[in-house]
Write a structure and sequence with these properties.
Distance between the termini of chain B: 33 Å
Number of strands of chain A: 11
Helix content of chain B: under 10%
Oligomer: heterodimer
Shape of chain B: globular
Largest sheet of chain A: 6 strands, mixed
Radius of gyration of chain B: 13 Å
Strand content of chain B: over 45%
Order of helices and strands of chain B: EEEEEEEEEEE
Helix content of chain A: under 10%
Structural class of chain B: mainly beta
């Protein structure tokens, strides 16, 4: 079953603009992770934020986590063509070791 | 190796046949996961190994699916009597200990097509 829901399902923006994607989840978590997937194949880990953290940065990425609203956002600043991909959030909890995934946001960066 | 390696990258098989998908995790990673991803969806958990044992196989859809990791490194996902509904990308991931505490590293996946 899928826990996370990404919003929007698809996003198309001009290169240089900022892209924001949101993720909502249903149950309590140990951490939330964001992944990127190109061409429907390998997933690349972007950032992990723990349940006791509110914000985390990595290069052009900024992730926020609001556990009271069970939601997270991923901001990509100064977008580039190479950022075109699908972005997934995945949650991990303490009761088991599987990641529970949303359906992803498809991001297209127009040149 | 440098990353998680999955073979083959593509597999086309006839309905009813048996297939094996191989995963070679990052050296030293004790945790290994199999996921399945259908078009337009997020990955769906199948099974998790900690060392040689399957710690959680609750995601395997039925008894046609089986996975092994006999020496705590390479894993093989086995599908018997394949059905068209089994067509998907099968992803393998490994992590140093286990997901709640560390990130998972994914292979490029095996695209299985059952015709």
């Amino acid at each position: 079953s899928q826990q996370g829901e990404e919003d929007p399902q698809a996003l198309s923006i001009q290169g240089g603009e900022n892209a924001t994607m949101n993720c909502s989840y249903k149950t309590s978590i140990n951490n939330l992770q964001w992944y990127r997937q190109n061409s429907g194949r390998g997933l690349v880990h972007l950032i992990l934020i723990r349940s006791n953290e509110r914000e985390k940065h990595s290069g052009r990425l900024r992730v926020t986590l609001d556990t009271s609203k069970k939601s997270s956002s991923l901001l990509i600043t100064a977008s580039r063509a190479a950022d075109t991909a699908s972005y997934f959030c995945a949650t991990a909890d303490d009761s088991n070791y599987q990641l529970i995934w949303g359906a992803g946001t498809k991001l297209i960066i127009k040149p | 190796g440098a990353g998680v390696s999955q073979t083959p990258s593509n597999k086309v098989t006839e309905k009813g046949k048996y297939v094996e998908l191989r995963c070679d995790p990052i050296s030293g990673h004790t945790a290994l996961y199999w996921y399945r991803q259908s078009l337009g969806q997020g990955p769906e958990f199948l099974i998790y190994f900690q060392g040689t044992g399957a710690a959680d196989d609750s995601g395997l859809p039925n008894d046609r699916f089986f996975a092994v990791r006999p020496e705590g490194s390479v894993s093989t996902l086995k599908i018997q009597r394949t059905e068209r509904g089994d067509s998907a990308v099968y992803l393998c991931a490994s992590s140093l200990t286990g997901v709640p505490h560390t990130e998972a590293f994914f292979g490029q996946g095996t695209r299985l097509t059952v015709v």
